[in-house]
Amino acid sequence: MHYDQAVTRVNQVNWNEFGTNVSKDNGKLVNEFLKRLASFYKAECQIPKTPVYSNIAYLLGDTDLKINIDGLCNKSTNEFLEKHGYIEFIVSFYIQLAKYIDKHPNYSEYLKIYEPLLEIIESGGCFNINTMGIEIKGFGYIPLQGWYERYVHGEPGSV
Question: How many CA atoms are closer than 13 Å to the CA of 32, on its beta-carbon side?
Answer without folding.
Answer: 15
